[in-house]
């Protein structure tokens, strides 16, 4: 892998950090807290990913790799690891329930749209949906979470799906779980593609223009929302047929996680042009 100049990497990181720092400040998280998380992450990654073949990783080597003091490395390794598993599990289970509701004909009406489901029942029910697509999670816990984030509506007799995908309308924890998962996946793909020693690159493309009117942007957003959702539904249906949690009879080597993410972005450049930026 060809090493890039540190100045180039740091300039890219500075641009990456701007929206992240804006989010952190909005949520009242000071620099010191992020600095501690960054130290802990540096130590974890150095310990797990930068070991010498056939040799035990030492605190001294981690200190050399990370630039941290050896005492700091020892202190950090004694800390309780950051736990993201609970947020990821909640996100994945809720996403699977909604995905199943959208594409499984057993839970759709005659027009192919997600049906309003009774909580219990011998026919298609919300309890049956959760049991089929969310494993051993309690039905009430899944329902409460989906109601909390604005994904479903509970009436006297039925539960109705309000969204075409798991994108929480409310609930900061759920939204931040998506932030951690989606941005991490994108950066991991970029890092993978920067390694010139790997011949099979991962798909990573985008399209953008920088002199659009506000009307054009709003129209493009509607177009991209519609087309992107159609494409993701196709991918979801294919992946679901190959998921061994849903189809234990499927065989194959190893256990992998794979998917495709699509995002929309826009930025007002008028002020920047007026300032000569």
Relative strand content? under 5%
Tally of extended strands? Answer: 2
What's the Cα radius of gyration?
Answer: 23 Å
Instruction: Report the order of strands and helices.
Output: HHHHHHHEEHHH
Oligomer: single chain
State the shape: globular
Q: Averaged pLDDT, please?
A: 86
* Straight-line N-to-C gap: 34 Å
Main sheet strand line-up: 1-2
Task: Outline the low-pLDDT stretches.
Answer: none
Q: How does the helix and strand content classify structurally?
A: mainly alpha
Count of helical regions: 10
Helix % is: 40-55%
Could you describe the 3D structure shown?
Helices cover 54% and strands 2% of the residues. It is mainly α. Among the domains are: 1-82; 85-161. It has a two-stranded antiparallel sheet with strand order 1-2. The chain is globular, with a radius of gyration of 23 Å. The two termini are 34 Å apart. The mean pLDDT is 86.
Task: Put the structure in a nutshell.
54% of the residues lie in helices and 2% in strands.
């Amino acid at each position: 892998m060809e090493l890039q100049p540190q100045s180039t990497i740091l300039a890219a990181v500075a641009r990456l950090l701007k929206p992240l720092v804006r989010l952190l400040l909005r949520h009242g998280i000071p620099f010191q807290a992020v600095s501690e998380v960054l130290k802990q992450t540096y130590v974890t990654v150095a310990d797990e990913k930068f070991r010498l073949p056939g040799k035990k990783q030492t605190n001294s080597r981690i200190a050399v790799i990370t630039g941290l003091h050896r005492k700091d490395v020892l202190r950090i390794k004694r800390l309780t690891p950051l736990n993201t598993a609970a947020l990821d599990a909640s996100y994945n289970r809720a996403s699977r329930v909604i995905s199943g509701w959208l594409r499984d004909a057993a839970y759709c009406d005659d027009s192919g749209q997600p049906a309003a489901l009774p909580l219990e029942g011998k026919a298609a029910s919300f309890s049956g949906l959760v049991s089929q697509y969310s494993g051993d999670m309690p039905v009430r816990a899944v329902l409460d979470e989906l109601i909390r984030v604005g994904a479903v509506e509970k009436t006297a007799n039925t539960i109705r799906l309000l969204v075409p995908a798991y994108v929480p309308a409310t609930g900061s924890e759920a939204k931040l779980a998506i932030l951690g998962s989606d941005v991490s996946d994108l950066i991991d793909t970029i890092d993978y593609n920067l390694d010139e020693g790997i011949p099979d690159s991962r798909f990573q493309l985008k399209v953008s223009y920088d002199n659009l009117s506000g009307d054009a942007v709003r129209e493009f957003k509607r177009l991209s929302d519609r087309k992107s959702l159609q494409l993701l539904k196709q991918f979801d249906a294919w992946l679901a047929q190959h998921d061994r949690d849903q189809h234990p009879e499927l065989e194959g080597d190893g256990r992998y996680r794979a998917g495709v993410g699509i995002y929309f972005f826009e930025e007002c450049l008028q002020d920047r042009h007026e300032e000569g930026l």
